[in-house]
Amino acid sequence: MHDILERFLFDHAAVRGETVVLRDSFAEVLARHPYPPVLARLLGELLAAGQLLEATLKFDGTLILQLHGKGQLKMAVVEITSKKTLRATARWDGEIPDVSLAELLGQGGRFVITIDPDDGEPYQGIVGFEKGESVATIIEHYMQRSAQIDTRVWLACDGQIASGLMLQKMPLEGGSGAEDEDAWPRVQRLAETITAEELLTLAPREMLHRLFHEETVRMFDPATPKFACTCSRERVGSMLEMVGREEVDSVLAERGQVEIVCDFCGKHYHFDSVDVAQLFAGQGVAEGNRNLQ
Q1: Which one of 15, 94, 249, 270 has the fewest CB atoms closer than 10 angstroms to its CB?
Q2: Do 52 and 20 contact (CB within 8 A), yes or no?
């Protein structure tokens, strides 16, 4: 069973859903860094959640899920694009025990969701969370508060496979949703019987049949998520320009070159004195022109 994302809709009921299984793409993420087991499982759940959320959005761009904290886990970031590519990374201090998410992040932990369209301004939502909450419940609360959409999420990750199931209640606007107003609580009860083992071992359509064989479920064409990093030499150069010539020159003087390593894929980018001079040449000309005015 390879990576697969499937969307489905309940006929005669105002309920839609998605299910995802990540194996190869998740392995690509884990191959980049030696993550402690608890962080590997957390990133897997975030990746599955991100794929499920992105499938509900109608836009071209990137969905970013971020966890920030002051505990041993400093940051975890997942990026999902509308092209169904994904990447992820995390930063932490010391040994990571197998504890709850709230304990990993410490006091003041935050969950941030950013929708960054290719054309237009990004939208960001910030959610605090309580002790005992999971990635799944955080997503549920976020969707209820920010989008006013009733959402249920089930996630599982064993460190090798990450999978998830999402259900959403759609507005009753006549036609197909208004015919079965009891569908939402009924479908939730059925989905609540799913186990982590079933999420990780059953193929999506087999799992949906197991859960909803008495319902009429319409499946859509599946998609195949894959790992891909969006880093590039041009993007790294833009970042160095934002840092500023003085700071970059100080690194050059100390080390002879500037080396940047992508947190997501581990690719190394090197800039020597010639590269830096070319990078800032346009900025230097502009500053010189301003000084002459």
Answers
A1: 94
A2: yes
Whether residues 210 and 240 fall in one domain? no
The SS3 assignment for 278 reads: helix
CB atoms inside a 10 Å sphere around CB 137: 16
Concatenated DSSP letters of 255-269: HSSEEEE-TTT--EE
Of 227, 253, 278, which marks where a domain is finished? Answer: 227
Residues 1/203, Cβ–Cβ less than 8 Å: yes
Q: Considering the entire predicted model, what is its pTM?
A: 0.87
User: Hey, what are 129's tokens?
Assistant: 């969370």
Residue with tokens 């991100």: 50
pLDDT category, 179, cuts 50, 70, 90?
Answer: low
DSSP assignment, residue 83? T
* Same domain flag for 274 and 213: no
Domain ranges, residue 110: 4-227
C-alpha torsion 23→90→153→84, nearest 10? -50
252: number of Cβ within 10 Å: 17
Residue where a domain terminates, one of 172, 198, 227: 227
Q: What is the pLDDT of residues 251-282, one digit of tens each?
A: 999 899 999 999 898 899 999 889 888 888 86
218 and 141 part of one domain: yes
Instruction: Give CA–CA dist 203/184, Å, rounded.
Output: 24
209 and 265 housed in the same domain: no
Which of 193, 162, 200, 192 lies closest to 50, judged by CA?
162
